[in-house]
Amino acid sequence: MSAPTLDRPAAPDEAALQAQFDATIAADHRIEPRDWMPEAYRSGLVRQIAQHAHSEIIGMQPEGDWLLAAPSLRRKAILLAKVQDEAGHGMYLYSAAETLGADRADLTDKLIERKQKYSSIFNYPTLTYADVGVIGWLVDGAAICNQVPLCRSSYGPYARAMIRVCKEESFHQRQGYELLMTMMRGTDAQRAMVQDAVDRWWAPSLMMFGPPDDDSPNSAQSMKWGVKRHSNDELRQRFVDMTVPQAEVLGVTLPDPELALDPATGRYRFGAIDWTEFKQVIAGKGPCNDERIARRRAARDDNAWVTEAATAYAGKHSR
Ligand code: BYC
Hints:
This protein is mostly helical. The chain is built from 13 helices and 2 strands; from the N terminus they run H-H-H-H-H-H-H-H-H-H-E-E-H-H-H.
């Protein structure tokens, strides 16, 4: 440590800062934006939070496709509110990334240039209105399973953003389930639509939790730092255990012949996941990757004049 001067206390050296960081993590306290943090902690968080923010923003597209074709005014109002919530989640998350020194416009550019990822789940098409219900039930259900533990994430701004996000996700999940319940009480054709949507979304929902633990390069360090609290496989299992009874109440079959309760553990065993498909989707070769990115690019470019005008206006006022 360098000698203190009269007007400026000595800056603690890196080892002392690291020790303080480690002690904060060990005590399960939060790291805040002004605290010192290792560079890998900062960049790892920017990676995860940016990916999460991009998922919320891209996630508006599959459901947004149904806004003009919702079957009633009530369903349209609900869907509009949900899609708007997702925009809000993206904004909280980009703000959290900004507290780590990231720039929102730069993150958007990286998404469009495919240098940063977004959730695999949003690369599948929404073919019927039952997909809206199934996204609410399964996709938001998986999101809740994954994100509730993130409310205790070690990085303060991320953890606090997650609290509000999870409250809204919980409403989203229930609206999806209620929509499916309504369709299941309807005609045979409606029940068939629900079953078809469940058949298509089940496996991609399981993939949302990420690769298996023995193939997850980021998990070990992320869990040591308390960013992630549970492993990918642990959360996936929790989701399956939570969802099987809900499927029974709904009256749909989950498309996995190996799905069975293990009486020894009280948990559900399930069949192998197609990790080749997962890898293809996150490499940009899923059914809708090109369409999703093209639309995000068009939104950025077509609306650039709004950003320019707002920036010029803010500049004029600050002068
Ligand atoms: N899709 O080492 P791993 C929502 C990547 S929003 C794409 O296990 P990690 C919603 C991973 O990033 C849903 N990529 O990573 C929105 C890594 O790549 P890089 C989004 C995936 O970070 C609107 C590589 O694979 N939720 O729910 O320890 C409407 C190796 O993985 C995926 C979040 O983002 C995937 N599924 O764990 C409705 C939650 N899985 O970066 C709903 C926050 C993995 O090394 N994020 N990859 O090139 C997380 O909890 C974690 O980042 C993950 C992955 C569990 C997703």
